[in-house]
Amino acid sequence: MGRQNTFDGLSEFLAIAKRQSVRKAALDLEVTPGAISQALQKLERRLGAPLFHRTTRRISLTEAGETLLAKIAPAAQLIETSLGETLQHSNEPSGTLKLIVERLALPHVIEPILPAFREAWPNVKVDITVSNTHGDFIADGYDAGILIGSYIAKEMIAVRLSPPFKWAVFGSPDYFMHNGLTSVRMSQNTRARHFHER
Question: Are 130 and 192 in contact (CB under 8 A)?
Fold first, then answer.
């Protein structure tokens, strides 16, 4: 025979005490009245005392039942409240969101939306690394990245965050004559900059 669970029968006992009816308690717990009665009988045998007076018309607590209810009802309410709070927290995003973003994304994407994001999700801490390098940022521990479209790996799931940008390079004719067009390429080894917002 398996070990007796301390809480066996208590939910049925509480439901009957609340509703003063086995049938109504069964509806609340979505089980049959027979299952409720069987659970109550097992609890009474375990405790060695009847918990309810039963007649054909009504059911009421015995002295032992009233004593038990007074002791466990507050604990049951606390458990129910705690479970509800935990469920609520689990439905709200929380924790740290680690992002790696292109420097260009700061003024055009991050700065415009960050205040609204922080207001909508106050339990989320945003940890941002600004870098123009394009490695495997998932392997580096980031949750997401904001990159220029041409640098996004094909296997990545991407969502457009801004209108297309047009690139332009400006310089004097003398500069290009002496340095050539290749000198205007942006270095991909730009040192990373890191900060975080709460």
Answer: yes
